[in-house]
UniProtKB/TrEMBL annotation:
E.C. designation(s): 4.2.1.46
InterPro entries named in the record: dTDP_Gluc_deHydtase, NAD(P)-bd_dom, NAD(P)-bd_dom_sf
The reaction(s) this protein catalyses: dTDP-alpha-D-glucose = dTDP-4-dehydro-6-deoxy-alpha-D-glucose + H2O
Organism: Ancylobacter amanitiformis
Family affiliation: Belongs to the NAD(P)-dependent epimerase/dehydratase family. dTDP-glucose dehydratase subfamily.
Lyase in keyword set: yes
NAD(P)-binding domain ranges (all copies): 8-326
Protein name: dTDP-glucose 4,6-dehydratase
NCBIfam families named among the record's database cross-references: dTDP_gluc_dehyt
Cofactor section: NAD(+)
SUPFAM superfamilies: NAD(P)-binding Rossmann-fold domains
Keywords from the UniProt entry: Lyase, NAD
Amino acid sequence: TSIAQRVLVTGGAGFIGSAVVRRLVRQGRTVLTYDKLTYAGNLASLAEVNDHPGYQFLKADICDGQAFRAALQEFRPDLVMHLAAESHVDRSIDGPGDFINTNIVGTYTLLDEALRYWRSLDASAQKRFRFHHISTDEVFGTLGEEGLFREDTPYQPNSPYSASKAASDHLVRAWFHTYGLPVVMSNCSNNYGPYHFPEKLIPLTILNALEGKPLPVYGKGENVRDWLYVDDHAAALERIATRGRLGESYNVGGNNERRNIDVVRTICAIMDRVMPDAAIGAREGLITFVTDRPGHDARYAIDATKLKDELGWEPSETFESGIEKTVRWYLDNGAWWEPLKARYDRARIGLA
Ligand code: NAD
Ligand code: TDX
């Protein structure tokens, strides 16, 4: 691994970013986490790497160009992996402003400074440098019952979140074509796994099921998502960042389409088996259908053939193995999620 020895990870204190940072540090790379620590950022997710000699943390905003310029000049990365974002669709509906700032203005700010930095490098360092922009399949909008998102599927974002991510993807593409900044891009389906903030469907369901609280399912629960275990995404990101073709985008997915109601029922069944509770009874009884998300996309599904054919990546977890691991991780790691409870109880949307 002579490439990507010094990696700057924006959003490295978040759910996916922390999985990427833990992976890269374990491999012996030198890593700087650049993160503002919003409600979604959590240094406890980086406890495993915190004292590692090859690891550093910087609390800073991606909208702060001076801070990012200084970080580039001091850390001198040969790879930037950009994961910092506002990520929760329901929050984007309630208040789009932070999404516009962080996801669009923040990405612009990083591109502007990355270009300045890249131009200042000598020829061999220029050749090594890459900027990897991490994005979502939600930019493609929604699918009917048939079909899969491909890299050339037209963009049709439907939420303030996905529109802001789509805008950021377009900016990254433009910096490649117009200025020659060496970029790679990827669009991934729904991630799940350890260290997932409990406002999202899977950890919310696990923790509410544990406590015998209602399990909110939007609409009829028939919306379909494709689920990918977070460490499988981190492995894909490493390949794309180091070996992906410049200027290209890669779709990443788990081949695990599930209706929301089936995801919730699966979690209930695992919880009933591994943590039976007579006072709660069968957890399916906790399912509560609530008002649907406005503009709720019906179905997401990914065609990840390009990533498999070009870079040889395939997920190693099935949904069944990954969800079992995830439930057990939450049951064993109360010390991680207990302090977040006040924040996730307030974050929960859809219940009166
Ligand atoms: P997350 O919300 O868990 O983490 C986001 C991180 O970014 C947090 O640590 C937060 O503190 C940081 N951050 C937010 N605003 C910032 C700012 N202005 N400056 C610096 N840091 C800031 O998100 P996640 O689920 O880990 O998602 C990471 C990336 O992957 C995002 O770009 C998201 O769009 C994308 N993505 C997520 C999923 C998913 O299922 N979670 C799927 C596909 C793509
Ligand atoms: O309480 C809930 N009940 C419910 O039915 C919540 C929180 C969600 N849902 C539904 C909405 C979605 O169809 O479950 C599905 C998953 O919802 P989220 O966990 O909020 O994820 P989603 O909106 O699909 O977006 C996620 O995947 C793509 C991430 O949050 C995004 O950052 C990523 O881009």
